[in-house]
């Protein structure tokens, strides 16, 4: 497990063979799925499931996954497994160089909790995709190569409905293997700005909004969460703390408190929202910001990042920085 600060924790897992996998993905219920790299020679492969919700996983269970069209002796090499954070549907990429051509490409693992089966998404796609991953908005991407078995060196967008692949940009760092490392079993927060450009009158003021979207794609509300943000001291938050507190209590629970303060020589540039209960899914709140031109003597680049703290360790906590 790797938290948002990059610190890693290792666990010893029983019930799974050594060297029988090259992929893994986690759903919003905290289940890690790993597809076997061994052909059972009866149109099936094994899948190992590790429940991560305890925070100290120790065992894996095995289920049999139906793989239509997989002939005895066919190679079984998976690119990656990933989960749509919006729908909780699980996808994987199949790309052995010796595969029967119609089988290569994107799959959804259906009926994953009962009678799992691999369902082909669209026609064959002759790409190697070592990394398959979603962003928080439910868009699928991949890192791989435009050929089977080639050097992985480019980013692709993958249509989760049709399986179609679109390359983004130009080739970059080339690697023999890669792996996507996103996890939907977590609590995160997006930070967006309401306008890409604002024009501030000389010696005057103007305003824009920061839009914050806490995202909880786990199976339950995340409680005891604190949101903190400190603006550059040339910017100020421009809202009434009591009014915002009432508004946020309707979304994140009646215990929510909002504190607006000063930091680093600024005025009203620090905000803390405590005792949040972040429900499943994603809901946004908006904080208006005041820009005072008189505080700038030259052009400037300002970078801002908020934090969520109090997140369970099993969800990547205790602190998560904003996207």
How would you describe the overall organization of this protein?
The structure is a single chain. By secondary structure, the protein is mostly beta strands. Helix content is 4%, strand content 39%. It has 1 helix and 22 strands. The protein has one helix at 241-252, and strands at 25-26, 31-35, 44-51, 61-66, 78-83, 90-94, 105-110, 117-120, 128-134, 140-145, 154-158, 165-168, 187-193, 205-216, 222-230, 235-237, 257-261, 270-278, 281-282, 285-292, 307-309, 319-321. The strands form 5 sheets. Strands 13, 14, 16, 19 and 20 form a 5-stranded antiparallel beta sheet that branches. Strand 5 and strand 6 form a beta hairpin. The longest helix has 12 residues, at 241-252.
Q: Using only CA atoms, what is the Rg?
A: 23 Å
- In helices, the fraction of residues equals under 10%
Instruction: Briefly note the structural class of the backbone.
Output: mainly beta
Mean pLDDT: 92
Shape: elongated
Low-confidence stretches: none
Summarize the helices and strands and which ones pair or pack.
Elements: E1 25-26, E2 31-35, E3 44-51, E4 61-66, E5 78-83, E6 90-94, E7 105-110, E8 117-120, E9 128-134, E10 140-145, E11 154-158, E12 165-168, E13 187-193, E14 205-216, E15 222-230, E16 235-237, H1 241-252, E17 257-261, E18 270-278, E19 281-282, E20 285-292, E21 307-309, E22 319-321
